[in-house]
Design goal:
By secondary structure, this protein is an alpha/beta fold. It folds into two domains: 41-121; 137-243 and 257-279, 3-Layer(aba) Sandwich (Rossmann fold). It is 44% helix and 11% strand. It has a five-stranded mixed sheet with strand order 2-1-3-4-5, with helices on both faces. The longest helix is centred in the N-terminal third of the chain and has 33 residues, at 75-107. The chain is elongated, with a radius of gyration of 37 Å.
């Protein structure tokens, strides 16, 4: 009895091995990787569709706000309208974003519906005075007779006079010290109560080539007036994004070498002139 039972069990196992592949069980269908990916994509699409329908349904129930907050005199009502408009705008953006995501999933193109990143270069407006060829004869001719020709022909050495506004305070003194280290042959003088006109005359007498007057706001450099001597030009700049050495981790110390000035995108006629003006500060 026992031997016959063993033979029948072994024959059944042999039939099972022949009928099913390794790792498979009776009644189980193992999907392929492509089928798994398609199922996952289908599930994701269903989830996106569900979110879009839910948000659209919610939007349909909310009445459209036509009133402008500026026209509402009551403060409480005005705030309520502003918050409702903001919420409605956020929901519209979310629906639009989900629709773009659905389109990307359907087509497989990750770039569909994605806007281009706006940078300074992409937002730059084409200027009529853009210099296509810096070696143009007209440009070279103007450079030979402008106020900075002596500097670029090595006929004069830059000598810079720097000062501040009246009664300066805060970190501008630290900035003055670092500026003296960065730009060779630069001398700082306290402003006291002198007018800029008087400072210019004194700087001319002492043969300075540039006068830099820095104005501070809340203790930080805010505005720069740069005058090239003896006959100009004079330019006013806004100073922003300034970092001194103490806030830069692992900073180095200045050496006696002359710094190298790198200027990019000074490509218009005005930019070219301002670039030459900046260059005239450095020996």
């Amino acid at each position: 009895m026992g031997g016959k039972r063993k033979r029948s069990m072994s024959s059944d196992l042999g039939e099972m091995d022949a009928e099913y592949a390794p790792g498979e069980l009776p009644g189980q269908n193992i999907p392929t990787p492509e089928e798994k990916l398609a199922k996952k994509k289908e599930k994701k699409m269903a989830s996106i569709d569900k979110s879009i329908k839910s948000l659209s349904k919610r939007q349909a129930k909310v009445p459209v706000i036509k009133a402008e907050p500026s026209e509402i005199k009551n403060k409480c009502r005005r705030i309520d309208v502003v918050l409702r408009k903001r919420k409605q705008k956020g929901t519209d953006k979310l629906v639009e974003r989900l629709k773009k995501k659905k389109l990307r999933e359907e087509t497989g193109d990750e770039n569909i519906g994605k806007g281009t990143t706006q940078t300074i270069e992409t937002m730059r407006v084409k200027d009529d005075t853009f210099i296509e060829n810096p070696d143009d004869e007209d440009i070279k001719g103007e450079e030979d007779i402008d106020e900075f020709a002596k500097y670029f022909n090595s006929e004069e050495t830059p000598k810079n006079f720097i000062t501040t506004n009246r009664r300066p305070r805060g970190g501008i003194f630290e900035f003055m010290a670092e500026l003296k280290e960065a730009i060779p042959n630069t001398f700082y003088y306290p402003r006291k109560n002198f007018k800029i006109k008087d400072i210019i005359e004194q700087a001319k007498e002492k043969e300075y080539t540039n006068v830099l007057v820095f104005y501070e706001k809340h203790g930080n450099p805010h505005t720069l007036i740069h005058s090239h001597l003896p006959d100009g030009p004079t330019a006013t700049y806004r100073v922003s994004g300034l970092k001194t050495k103490k806030v830069i981790k692992g900073h180095g110390n200045s050496t006696d070498h002359h710094p190298e000035l790198i200027m990019n995108n000074f490509d218009t006629m005005l930019g070219h002139r301002v670039g030459r003006m900046f260059a005239s500060l450095f020996p």
